[in-house]
Specification:
Blueprint (H helix, E strand, L loop, with lengths): L5 H91 L1
Length: 97
């Protein structure tokens, strides 16, 4: 083998390695920036969906409250009708007897 000083063999190799490291660093930096942008976009989408879900949940709760109110009102009316019917039946029995 050739007995050449270290500079002759290692310098081009070292330069190549450093260039590759720098290129890799640039690539990683670009990828991280891209991922940060995508992450921020996903965060905004998630917050938007969260707000839509809250609005939907509030709307559903309001509608359920209205249904419960109507059910209670209808039930009260049915109890009144039942009482009226019993009273009518009692009066009818008294008038027949």
């Amino acid at each position: 083998m050739d007995k050449v000083p270290d500079d002759a063999v290692t310098k081009p190799t070292l330069d190549t390695i450093l260039e590759r490291i720098n290129a890799l660093s640039d690539t990683v930096t670009r990828e991280i920036s891209s991922l940060r942008g995508e992450f921020n976009s996903l965060r905004q989408d998630f917050n938007s969906l969260r707000e839509e879900f809250r609005a939907f949940r509030e709307e559903v709760e309001i509608r359920l409250d209205r249904i419960e109110s109507m059910t209670n009102q209808t039930r009260a009316e049915m109890l009144t009708l039942r009482a009226d019917f019993r009273e009518f039946r009692a009066q009818l029995r008294e008038s027949i007897a």
